From TrEMBL:
PANTHER family: NITRILASE-RELATED, OMEGA-AMIDASE NIT2. Coiled coil: none annotated. Pfam families: CN_hydrolase. Residues 11-264 form the CN hydrolase domain. The keyword S-adenosyl-L-methionine does not apply. PROSITE patterns: CN_HYDROLASE, UPF0012. It comes from Saccharomyces cerevisiae x Saccharomyces kudriavzevii (strain VIN7). Keywords: Hydrolase. One of its GO terms (biological process) is glutamine metabolic process. One of its GO terms (molecular function) is omega-amidase activity. This is Nit3p. One of its GO terms (cellular component) is mitochondrion. It comes from the Eukaryota. InterPro entries: C-N_Hydrolase (IPR003010), C-N_Hydrolase_sf (IPR036526), Nit1/2_C-N_Hydrolase (IPR045254), UPF0012_CS (IPR001110).
Amino acid sequence: MSASKILSQKIKIALIQLSGSSPDKMANLQRAATFVERALKEQPDTKLVVLPECFNSPYSTDQFRKYSEVINPNEPSTSVRFLSNLANRFRIILVGGTIPELDPKTNKIYNTSIIFNEDGELIDKHRKVHLFDVDIPNGISFHESETLSPGEKPTTIDTSYGKFGVGICYDMRFPELAMLSARKGAFAMIYPSAFNTVTGPLHWHLLARSRAVDNQVYVMLCSPARNLQSSYHAYGHSIVVDPRGKIVAEAGEGEEIIYAELDPEVIESFRLAVPLTKQRRFDVYPDVNAH
Ligand SMILES: NC(=O)CCC(=O)C(=O)O
């Protein structure tokens, strides 16, 4: 597939690094709306906006069920209705961070990203596939699986600009999701995220740049701002990396919006110069699925 088809035209994007969420869901949604409005005032051509992981609920395993919502496009829940209106009002594609999702059939809870088009339609959702379960001595212990269940499928979204893949935070450690989306022709991987202050300095930039270089796609990681009053200290540093592995925008640790323009020419020229897709040797590694 030619790169001009991968991304049909230049697109301006914004990542909103919101402060770590307060216990008040409605206040968190309103704050997200204020920042989206600010982004569109500062950069009126912005067409795609990303919010962080768990932007309207505490990032805490004992709180996920309490804040969970049933995601049903026919009966929109609080967050779905709010984000749908926001996307429609500003005519943007909105990757609405993540919210805890309750599946009413199974009573399971998922960490789920909901994605809206410019008309405010819920076009897809991604349930976090790889749960953040770690024990780092003298560092951090966190076990999402205490209350969350893992998603069961990769997610690639079709838009008027082309396709992008969605993963959630810890998902970025597993190259397979990005690889699958890239092979379907995605121009970018988007990860609403909330790394912590132990693993963030070690791996955040490395993983963003690796997924970009592996797949020659743009990579966007959107974090909450660091809030030392909350139980979980997010790393911040929301970041946009281009298909060459170059960091084109990066936030600090506080509340901030970062902007970037994704350019099909950057994808096309780098793929021509370093033609990885043509050079793959599935004859040498036939166990790796070519599709
Ligand atoms: N919210 C998460 O998935 C955190 C992932 C993380 O911090 C990591 O090191 O991986």
